[in-house]
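=== Per-residue structure ===
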Amino acid sequence: MIGAFGVSLEGRETPGAMRDIAAAADAAGASTLWIASHLFQREPIAVATAALAATRRIGAALMAMSPYTVHPVYAAMAAATLDEYFPGRVQLCLGVGAPRDLEAAGVEAKEPLRTLREAIGVARALFAGETIDFAGERFRVKGRRLATGARRIPIVLAASGPHMLELAGAAADGVLISAATSPAFIRWCLEAVRRGEAAAGRSVRKMALVYSSVDAEEKTAHDRLRHTLGFILRGPHHARNLELAGTTLDQQRLAAAFAREDWPEVDRLVTDEVMRCHAASGTPDQLRAAFQRYRSVGLDEIVIAGAAGGDALRQILSVAALGG
């Protein structure tokens, strides 16, 4: 069995698909639905409300709310309100945001480390029920408190750079590592998180998004995720991820292929070996082995990503359970 797990929603799901995935995850014992906050996709607060109302036990995490597009007061207010309606089932995940999404919206992400540190501080004070008096360089909040009162809401930081990872270990309640990352890169990330933990004398929960697909034919499983992984891995910020995994991938050529929608070239560049290194994908045996590799680097929770619907998620979980 893969152990503790969550399931992610990417914002592309229709209401029917979202409810089917949420029901399958809830029935299987998933801890959390991680609901993406990608610009131009579906809005995560509305999706979280619908998902929590349609399920009985599973939690929801707003993932990852960016203080560059959503003020931390508003993010904390949204999480606290959800928690008031669905007590103990809500987490707030903060992060810079996808670089290309921010660029498309004309948003500059200046001084990300300071900005996220201050955003955590604002949310933490508000969740404590305090009348806040916060004077940072980016955010200044004074003389107000949340109408909901104090709420016990975990704050998770989505991080991938060494300083942001250390901040997660020092100041957040958990860290979430991005999808399409290899086990080798996640191990490197968690070393940085532990430095932050050691400096602050505390520990945090460690999670990672893992794209997952299973089929009797390896290539069929990979093909479901190939374009998605290629889209992510084309970004220059994944260079270290690729390097640590020993993955050969021409990111510039891949980005150009996506720009001109040259899908045969994308398929050629994102090889089966790339898929094996950066996802839990393939035959049932390959899926189970991949989950074990991800678990072995020190994750507390694997967050299954990329399931196209409830049936696909049920198949992944059924196969994974066979490895227990």
User: Anything to note?
Assistant: Residues 5-216+283-321 form a domain with the TIM Barrel fold (CATH 3.20.20.30). The first helix runs from residue 15 to 28. The chain has a mean pLDDT of 95. The chain has 14 helices and eleven strands.
